[in-house]
Amino acid sequence: MLCNTKQLLLAAQQEKTAVAAFNVYSLETVQAAVRVAEQEERPVIIALGERYFPTVDVEGFAALVQAIAAKANVPVALHLDHAYEKASIVRAIRSGFTSVMYDGSKYELAENIRRTKELVELAHMAGVSVEAEIGSVARGDFSDEEEGDGTLTDPASAQRFVAETGVDFLAASIGTVHGMYTGEPNINLELLGRIREAVSVPLVLHGGSGTPDDVLTEAIRAGICKVNVNTEVSMAAVAYLVEAAQQPAFHRAHLSTIMESMQQSMVPVMARFVRLLAHKR
Ligand code: 13P
Question: Does 125 fall in a domain?
Answer without folding.
Answer: yes
